[in-house]
Design a protein that fits this description.
A hairpin with a 4-residue loop joins strand 11 and strand 12. Helix 1 crosses helix 2, helix 4 runs antiparallel to helix 5 and helix 17 packs antiparallel against helix 18. The protein is of the alpha+beta class. It is 46% helix and 14% strand. Strands 6-15-11-12 form a four-stranded antiparallel sheet, with no helix packed on it. Strands 7, 8, 9 and 10 form a four-stranded mixed sheet that branches.
């Protein structure tokens, strides 16, 4: 049954209303009166004027213009009691208020923004958000910047919802946020105050700092320099390194940003106080996972390898020859002085370093033609040297690995140790100079990448990295160690892997059909070998 309801507003005000009319407009009130048999409803959080407006709207369907100070109460009443048509009218009135603002003052923008935050936080609706942000984003850059700067003066006391909308408002103009943050840090330092970094961290973690790196490198450097000064613990420092890694990683999706990162000294200086190398774009090991067209004739493949941009050094050129010969073992190749001169000319034109005898003598053997070809290279002083270092190379190894395929099933870190790099003999850092390689799983487009991420080296007490290494000259290969049953020992052969293609993770396992060796024994092991320039 329906009867007269008492609506109890704030400050003890009681507004009588017909339960029939209110129930017709509000399913919530209908449930309260017909199911729960309530005769009064507590509306004490709402002002009397707002409750009377709500009742008048239900009785007449009329919604006169709402003042700013009444808007939140009336809009919340409409949402809480699910009077859907009044909710829509409130949205319309909010839009009208927005359009009526011609020369927006800070007070105008605060009203729009705070109402949007309130509705999103408490009523879980984005209707006002879209209207408010559209209005603020329509202002010129200076007006937007001024609004955000003033709003962030109380950064430490803002809610996550407020920060989220500020971030959404700025889009790619992240300098509008970064500059007030640096000013806040500067002011705190000048006053020798203590900053609660919670909201600073939340904001910086949720904006795309790569845009700041691209558009205002000086501001980017100043921000990270200030943050470093605030890092009082190892956890703070690790957070800062992760933040910088993320920003630079995001920046590498743009060639322009890669160039900016590579040529701007500030990026590598920002953490120099701690002597921790700064992250740069993660480089892919250039010689891995290429595919060779083995249907070409021998002369064609030599010409292609000699001119292709895919071939980064002489090792890779020779691995291409080996790969072609492996696929064409029945094809007889004439190894002539003319061919040797041609290969010498290619190496000189491409300015490649020579290779070492040890590498060529221990290649997995193939046909008689391949033997003659590689013996010809070994005996040519213009192509080969006795010692690796004479050719300008050094080599570092991993420990023995049982299953090479398992490394590409999930991300794996592979450490290469060197007691001291040539050229870094005066290095005073603890542990060994070296590299950490990461594998990218086959299901995610398999790759080997050199980690230049300081986080990886921070967690390793045994190894540290030098930024001076030129990654374009790194060359990865595998030594296959086959156990000899007679002597209970292993014999080692190098596996040319540059042209083995890319493995693919399928439901039934890892497929790498062009892997150089298929018939390996259960006792065989592998060692990854990384060639790097002899600095």
């Amino acid at each position: 049954t329906h009867s007269t309801l008492e609506l109890k507003a704030s400050q003890g005000a009681v507004i009588p209303a017909s339960s029939v009319i209110l129930s017709f407009n509000s399913p919530v009130i209908d449930h309260m009166t017909t199911t729960l048999h309530l005769t009064s409803i507590d509306m004490e959080e709402f002002r009397e004027a707002a409750v009377r407006y709500f009742v008048h709207a239900a009785y007449t369907g009329e919604t006169p213009p709402i003042s700013r100070d009444m808007f939140r109460d009336i809009n919340k009443l409409a949402n809480v009691f699910k009077m859907s048509w009044l909710v829509n009218r409130c949205v319309d009135q909010f839009e009208n208020m927005t359009e009526a603002i011609q020369e927006a003052s800070y007070e105008d923008l605060i009203f729009l923004f705070d109402e949007a935050v309130y509705v999103l936080s408490n009523l879980k609706s984005r209707q006002l958000v879209e209207i408010a942000l559209k209005k603020i984003q329509s202002l010129n850059g200076e007006s937007q910047r001024d609004f955000i700067s003033r709003y962030l003066q109380n950064l430490t006391s803002l809610s996550c919802q407020q920060l989220d909308l500020i971030i959404e408002l700025t889009k790619t103009n992240v300098e509008y946020i970064v500059k007030p943050i640096t000013e806040k840090i500067t002011a705190s330092s000048s006053n020798q105050g203590t900053l609660d970094l919670t909201n600073f961290k939340y904001t910086l973690e949720n904006i795309d700092l790569s845009y700041c790196l691209k558009n205002n490198i000086q501001l980017y450097e100043r921000l990270f320099g200030m943050l470093e000064e605030l890092c009082g613990t190892n956890d703070d420092l690790k957070w800062l390194l992760r933040l910088q890694r993320k920003s630079i990683k995001e920046s590498t999706t743009s060639k322009e940003l890669i160039s900016s990162t590579a040529t701007t000294s500030g990026v590598t200086q920002c953490l120099s106080v701690r002597n921790i190398p700064c992250a740069t774009a993660t480089p892919i090991i250039p010689n891995m996972f290429h595919t060779l067209n083995t249907t070409l004739t021998f002369d064609e493949v030599v010409d292609w390898l000699g001119t292709s941009d895919e071939v980064s050094n002489f090792w890779m050129f020779l691995e291409g020859i080996w790969t072609w010969m492996r696929a064409n073992e029945d094809t007889q190749v004439k190894i002539s002085p003319k061919l040797r001169r041609k290969v010498c000319e290619i190496r000189k034109q491409r300015k490649w370093r020579k290779v070492s005898e040890n590498f060529l003598e221990n290649l997995v053997p193939l046909s008689e033609s391949s033997y003659k070809f590689f013996r010809g290279v070994i005996t040519c002083e213009d192509l080969c040297t006795a010692m690796l270092t004479e050719a300008g190379w050094k080599i570092t190894f991993t420990e023995e690995i049982k299953d090479i395929f398992s490394l590409l099933k999930e991300e794996t870190k592979i450490s290469f140790f060197s007691h001291r790099f040539q050229g870094f003999s005066n290095c005073s850092k603890p542990g060994k100079c070296g590299f950490i390689l990461k594998t990218v799983p086959a299901k995610e487009h398999a790759n080997f990448v050199l980690s230049t991420d300081p986080i990886d080296y921070l967690y390793s007490e045994e190894i540290h990295y030098h930024n001076d290494i030129d990654t374009k000259d790194l060359h990865l290969l595998v030594q296959w160690r086959k156990k000899l049953k007679i002597f209970n020992m292993h014999t080692g052969h190098y596996l040319p892997m540059s042209w083995a293609g890319r493995p693919v993770q399928e439901d039934n396992g890892l497929l790498w059909n062009t892997f150089p060796v298929h018939e390996y024994g259960k006792d065989d092991t592998y060692v990854f070998c990384l060639l790097y320039p002899n600095l």
